[in-house]
Amino acid sequence: MQYPVQSILVREALTSPKIRGPNIFGRGRSMPSTKPPTIQRRRLAAELRLFRERAQVTLEEVAARLGWSVAKISRIETAIVGVNSKDLNLLLDLYGVEGERRTAILSKTRTARTKGWWDAYAEFVPSDYIDYIELEAQLAGMRSYNAHVIHGLMQTESYARDIIRGATMGLSSPAEIDRRVEVRMTRQRLLTRERDPLRFWLVIAEPALSWVVGSPKIMAEQYDKLREYAERDNVTVQVLPASAGAHPASAGSFDILEFPNPHEPDAVYVETMTANRYVESHAEIYRYTLAFDHLRAMALSPADSVDFLTQAAEKIMSRSEER
């Protein structure tokens, strides 16, 4: 049997080590991506900036005393570049950081990436995805707009399985799909962990809810899960109805990532079919934040959104029974 050229190209693309990942659509992190600064680098950058401010020295003064350029110090403090141990010691000396605090910071820089549950999947998923999971695990909050698919942190197992199966166009084995679903379900513990659960604010467009994934039963279960999450103190769910009309996020979905250190600026994660992007420009982040605020204002209230989900579940099941 001969396959069309397009089919051959698709098969080659999806089986390429550079493309294959745990899931390539469905708010599940597709690869490749522009890699963000590591968690440790962001934290260290924020701490160094704080130490400098407490020492009441300016960037220009640090540059003059150490014989560096102001640009170099700025890049370190914004996590654009890392800092080697020699330069780090010079900065800590200048800022007067001593004792246990100094020891802890130096120890951080020597320690490899924090180990977590995700390391068990390193053999099966791309390193960029592992980096994202580690990043996600350290977040204090996330504001997310979903245009087409329900966010991976809120998907049911059945919904996730169908999304992943469809995204890989039937080229993944049942065992591979199982592992990918397992990863996605484990990520969801962020929302229910006992200590500092992730603050999650979701605005989801009505088309993402009306698109039937799997079956009416799967969708009804998905609506129920969204309602259950909406009852949690750390989760807010709002539905953007189709009647809301034009809005500032017509380009698609995005996540605003909030870090626990108040000195660390937010970042934005944008997912596309073939690549992902981390946005860390202050001007761009402001645009996304403003867009999200507009979406919140245009969406149904949290209470009305729960009612919407209840009615959606009832409607889809009644239509299914009529058939």
UniProtKB/TrEMBL annotation:
Domain (HTH cro/C1-type): residue spans on this chain: 48-102
Source species, domain of life: Bacteria
GO molecular function: DNA binding
SUPFAM superfamilies attached to this UniProt entry: lambda repressor-like DNA-binding domains
Pfam families given in the database record: DUF5753 (PF19054), HTH_31 (PF13560)
PROSITE patterns, A to Z: HTH_CROC1
Protein name (database record): Transcriptional regulator with XRE-family HTH domain
